[in-house]
Specification:
5-stranded antiparallel beta sheet, 5 strands, alpha+beta, single chain
Length: 110
């Protein structure tokens, strides 16, 4: 008996795990409640997974949260990329990497 693969020849893709998405969506919900973010998009590609956040639907991403497993032993597999393509934070601990965006929630109340 031969084994059958559901999608033969289909390349594997990088995806966010449920626990990773839980952390990201928790931050996303707080930013939406604060009026900072309005939309998001998720891409699962061959070498990376991207969670992009937008202020408005029809514009470039405000921030990108990327997962690149090949960088796990180097700079870290998670990164937050700014609107101009600059790396704001990189590391292997997603919670620590996302803190760079949580600082945007802190505002002075008068």
């Amino acid at each position: 008996m031969s084994s059958v693969t559901p999608f033969p020849g289909r390349p594997s893709t990088v995806a966010f795990h449920r626990t990773e998405l839980s952390l990201i969506l928790s931050l996303y919900g707080r930013m939406v409640a604060a009026g900072e973010w309005r939309d998001y998009g998720i891409s699962h590609l061959k070498d990376l997974a991207v969670f992009a956040v937008f202020r408005r639907t029809a514009e470039h991403p405000l921030y990108r949260i990327e997962k690149r497993p090949k960088l796990r032993n180097r700079q870290g597999q998670y990164a937050v990329i700014g609107p101009e393509g600059q790396i704001l934070k990189r590391g292997n601990d997603l919670r620590a990497v996302l803190r760079v965006l949580e600082r945007k929630l802190i505002r002075v109340v008068e």
